[in-house]
């Protein structure tokens, strides 16, 4: 193994150069829940510390209450249901303080936790149930109709009877039946997003979860060296608990004795209000949420001084937005890991309150087989096609300018010189638009917008329209003027549209008579694309 890179030429595998983190012996019976509780009990002793908060209902749960409810639910499930180890339990519920209790109780019993998105359709839920084959489901009154008949039925988390399962007063140590859970047993079946086909079930063992938690515990222990205890964090969950990230984070919260703040339905201002009220120190975010932090004036309305770090993932974050975030929130560390082909952009020193830093490392040129594209250095195949030439980044050039220049220089240009070649067809009425008409419309729309509206470069234009002839011309005209195009689904609800408008902060909107009612008042108003009197017609 190369001591500098960790790469082994014999196996084609990179290994971590850090010292190995000690794991429990694989032969030791141990569930992920038991492991998290053992670390918590050896590190933290204050049971009055808040474990979870539901900002929607205002309910809170201390660690002593959480542990008590997990034991009580474990006992209740053993007494009332004939569940066997490795049986699958399907969970279909919005976030609530009951979900962590259910997860830990099921894991303690050696049952397989299989949570799903409560917003999924009936057919999607049916497919997931076919994959995981659950014998029991934990649901709410709003989601129960999506679940077919199961061997042991369904448990309603919001029923008046459910709290009684969490408050068994007759439990004493040793009453619950001893359950031997092997680390190799399946702990959870989560679901892929279906990017490469239909949704797939992903099985994870208790050993998988224990290994992840061991690394987190090791990092936290190193962070706390020199102190009696590492600082306790308060994390606002923007990720759903059924998601793999949310699932792992929930286990880590218990492991570290931290506090989790949950919300049943995400709202940007409600999140800011929760940060102020509960002194939130960190949260996972997506790039659109970082944009909202940068652009929204609501952030000045609330005290966000407790925030220490945001972990950004899910998609690339633009460097400009990252730097603007750092300027607006200099005391908050924005952490992003972004992996690209032959490049690594890595933010390090995760727990330190320092300014945002970008660290780039460029791999050396690879020796590639000219016939196959295979590199023996990385054990990967590279494309044999020549690199596509791009315009210099310094050249002022909009997408419409570039696309039209390529079109005019292509073999299609002569065919369309007479304006007869069709660009777009409206299947509903048979109307057509030729390329010459399309290009003429772009220039005409751009001229009309410059004449009739006081638009500036980088202003945002919100488009809320079903497919029509106007939309392609509108996109090209706006982009040619340096205006930011922000289209949204016309089927979105008024609250969803309002949220998107808050995020993008448009100064003008282009809509139809059917969709304009969903839009708030904007600086330059709304242009109706289906109006005969439209200045863009």
From TrEMBL:
The keyword Isomerase does not apply. GO terms for molecular function: CoA-ligase activity. Pfam families: AMP-binding. Residues 54-333, 414-515 form the AMP-dependent synthetase/ligase domain. It comes from the Eukaryota. Keywords: Ligase, Membrane, Transmembrane, Transmembrane helix. The keyword Cell membrane does not apply. PANTHER family: 4-COUMARATE--COA LIGASE-LIKE 9, LONG-CHAIN-FATTY-ACID--COA LIGASE. This is AMP-dependent synthetase/ligase domain-containing protein. It comes from Gossypium tomentosum (Hawaiian cotton). The lineage of its organism: Eukaryota, Viridiplantae, Streptophyta, Embryophyta, Tracheophyta.
């Amino acid at each position: 193994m190369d001591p500098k890179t960790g790469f082994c030429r014999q196996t084609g595998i990179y290994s971590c150069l850090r010292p190995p983190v000690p794991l429990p012996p694989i032969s030791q019976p141990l569930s992920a829940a038991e492991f998290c509780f053992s670390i918590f009990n050896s590190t933290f002793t204050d049971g009055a510390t808040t474990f979870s908060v539901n900002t929607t209902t205002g309910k809170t749960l201390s660690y002593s209450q959480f542990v008590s409810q997990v034991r009580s639910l474990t006992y209740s499930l053993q007494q009332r249901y004939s569940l066997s180890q490795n049986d699958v339990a399907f969970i279909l519920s919005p976030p609530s303080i009951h979900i962590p209790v259910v997860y830990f109780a099921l894991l303690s019993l050696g049952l397989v936790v299989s949570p799903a998105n409560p917003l999924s359709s009936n057919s999607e839920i049916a497919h997931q149930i076919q994959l995981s084959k659950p014998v029991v489901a934990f649901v709410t009154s709003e989601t129960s109709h999506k679940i077919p008949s199961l061997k042991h039925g369904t448990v309603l988390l919001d029923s008046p009877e459910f709290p009684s399962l969490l408050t068994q007063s007759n439990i004493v140590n040793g009453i619950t039946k001893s359950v031997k859970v092997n680390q190799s047993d399946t702990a959870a079946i989560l679901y892929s997003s279906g990017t490469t086909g239909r949704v797939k079930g992903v099985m994870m063992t208790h050993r998988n979860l224990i290994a992840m938690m061991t690394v987190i515990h090791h990092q936290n222990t190193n962070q706390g060296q020199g102190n009696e205890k590492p600082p306790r964090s308060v994390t606002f969950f923007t990720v759903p608990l059924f998601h793999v990230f949310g699932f792992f984070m929930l286990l880590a919260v218990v492991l570290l004795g931290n506090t989790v703040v949950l919300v049943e339905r995400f709202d940007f201002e409600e999140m800011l209000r929760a940060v102020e009220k509960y002194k939130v120190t960190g949260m996972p975010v997506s790039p659109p949420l970082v944009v909202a932090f940068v652009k929204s004036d609501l952030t000045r309305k609330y005290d966000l001084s407790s925030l220490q770090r945001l972990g950004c993932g899910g998609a690339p974050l633009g460097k400009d937005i990252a730097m603007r975030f750092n300027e607006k929130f200099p005391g908050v560390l924005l952490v992003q890991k972004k992996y690209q082909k032959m490049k690594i952009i890595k933010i390090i020193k995760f727990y330190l309150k320092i300014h945002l830093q970008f660290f780039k490392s460029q791999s050396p040129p690879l020796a590639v087989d000219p016939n196959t594209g295979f590199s023996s250095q990385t054990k990967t195949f590279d494309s044999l096609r020549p690199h596509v030439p791009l315009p210099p980044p310094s050249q002022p050039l909009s997408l419409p300018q570039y696309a039209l220049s390529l079109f005019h220089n292509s073999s299609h240009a002569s065919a369309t010189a007479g304006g007869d070649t069709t660009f777009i067809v409206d299947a509903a009425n048979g109307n057509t638009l030729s390329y010459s008409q399309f290009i003429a419309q772009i220039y005409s729309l751009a001229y009309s917008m410059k004449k009739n509206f006081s638009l500036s470069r980088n202003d945002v234009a919100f488009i809320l329209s079903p497919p029509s002839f106007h939309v392609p011309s509108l996109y090209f005209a706006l982009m040619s003027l340096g205006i930011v195009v922000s289209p949204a689904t016309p089927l979105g609800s008024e609250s969803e549209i309002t949220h998107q408008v808050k995020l993008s902060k448009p100064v003008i909107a282009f809509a139809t008579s059917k969709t304009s009612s969903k839009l708030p008042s904007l600086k330059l108003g709304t242009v109706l694309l289906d109006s005969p009197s439209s200045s863009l017609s």
